[in-house]
Amino acid sequence: MDLSLFDYDLPPSRIAQEPADPRDSSRLLVLDRAQHAREDRAFADLPGLLRAGDCLVLNTTRVIPARLLGALEDGGRPVEMLLLRAVGAGEWEALARPGRRCRRGARISLAGGAAQATVLEEKAEGVRVVSLAPGPVADLLDRHGLPPLPPYIERHDAPKPEDRQRYQTVYAREDGSVAAPTAGLHFTSALLERVERMRVEVHRLTLHVGPATFRPVRAARVEAHRMGSEAVSIPAATADAVNRAKAERRRVVAVGTTTTRALEWGADAAGQVRPVAGSADLFIYPGHRFTVVDALITNFHLPRSTLLLLVAAFAGREPVLAAYRHAVAAGYRFYSFGDAMFIV
Asked: Residue 263: its pLDDT value, please?
């Protein structure tokens, strides 16, 4: 399967630079797979589009202010680090840019001298293992870390104070992501209350979003891509609720591609979701047989990305790309701070 089949044209003006205010004022494109139909709605309409008995599953990961700016102690050349995950006492895996400046043994002054990083190891895909001092790292990030906005956000290098809160879902709980599960950014607490009054079950899991989600697909053939792993935790209560919904032929509605991937990864061969914690490396692309998710709330994703491939696997490549062309023509806003789709 050629990756170029998952390309589309997007004018730069369609890339959302600001989140909708209020959150649920964003637009919602409803794509009905059975009827081959589209409808333009508002995200605030979502409660009326759900059904009593639906099982709505959210990803409760919380984005950490993982981006630190610094400079090499030898020569002062600028460096930035995106801390990914702790791997030991004071040691973290990090993406370092530019990587050629961050070879083993390099020492980097971070946040104007507030901390120092030493590169201990060079790993694949630009990842470095670094030691950070002084600790604790959580305090360093709280004081000096920047929200890890995507590079297509023009203020990527100078985020606004409110970005810490707006690049975060209202139901975020567990620290660990370096990118937001963006489908959830449209929810307000009031909207969730409306959903629950519709007798929709709301359940939660956690997938910490890391480089595996946003790393570009570089292979020309889709099948050659290898998905990195990300930490997932599916509580027993969520697994039981999803399995009951499936048994009773009620819909499982996933909020986001990360939730979808977690649920599909967590299912056994019979489609039963297991209460499990582990590392998910499931790569979903056209041809995948979905055993858990019946409907999907998702944003509009970058061309040739693993996220677009997942959506195309769920709804079909041609219907999805046709919906994207409609969204471009109709003025929808794209990517992390953009509008949403509800695929049923």
From this structure: 98
